[in-house]
Amino acid sequence: MTLFRRLRPFVLATMLVxxxxxxxRGQQPAFSSSEKPFATISRMLLRQPARDSLVDLAxxxxxxxxxxxxxxxxxxxxCSGLIQWLMARFDLDLPRTSREQVKAGIEVAKDPSAMLPGxxxxxxxxxxxxxxxxxxxxxxxxxxxxxRKGVVEAALPTGRAATTWWKTVRRLFTHDSTGxxxxxxxxxxxxSSS
Length: 194
Known about the structure:
The chain is of the alpha+beta class. It contains 6 helices and 11 strands. It folds into 2 domains: 1-24 and 33-45, no CATH class; 47-189, endopeptidase fold (from Nostoc punctiforme) (Alpha-Beta Complex). The strands form 3 sheets. Strands 5-10-6-7-8-9 form a 6-stranded antiparallel sheet. A 3-stranded mixed sheet has the order 1-3-2. A two-stranded antiparallel ribbon has the order 4-11. A hairpin with a 3-residue loop joins strand 2 (71-72) and strand 3.
């Protein structure tokens, strides 16, 4: 008996439950042909594993090249393109640039004990935001750093960099009924195209 035949009842039951709960909320099921089936199921049914899935997905990009303006997986990313691509996998539309992305979600303290995996970290000089990464837990974040480094997992800034370069933390995922944090910008919402 093939694996598909053995798993078919489970997959069909999950699709029915997911489709029913999404329809009950007035939304369409968020199945994506570009996503692995079990990643879709865990994303749709479970909140905490969604954070784990986001962390796994972010870490899977480590080692990719950096290219300014790039936003395609498997080739290269710039920092905001990486974040936009990651969040789109979880049905969140984000603007293209870090300067616009910083308006999404709710502000969280720049304290690792208050931060959750999936929170966005924003960096810059002066009042200008110019860089973004995603917190993956244990005092680390993933970001498309530079042409020389590419996509890296790095420790949170400390010392002077923590007070001058690291500007803010924003949370897009909450524990409310929608799972999406309120936004300062109307550009963030449920992604209808995936």
